[in-house]
Amino acid sequence: MNKLELVAALKAKAHMTKAEAAEVVQIFFDEMASALARGERVEIRGLCSFFVKEYKSYTGRNPKTGEKVTIKPKKLPFFKSGKELKERVNGINAQKA
Question: Would you say residue 54 lies in a domain?
């Protein structure tokens, strides 16, 4: 499912216009991205959580030349699925869905 498909599903289920549904989806994604940029954790109970991991600087190697290079410190967003999502994907309790 992509963003346009999500907008279409919201439009159909919430009886909104396409523009309203697109705005809701955009606000949702913008707020999640802003929270992660501030270093906050985003948790959607039963579905998933997003958080930021920080990595320190380290020495790596250029795979082509074998030359040592310094990798700068960085932050990366991570996704962790919730128990209910894992069960749904694996077909456990599929009759409840």
Answer: yes
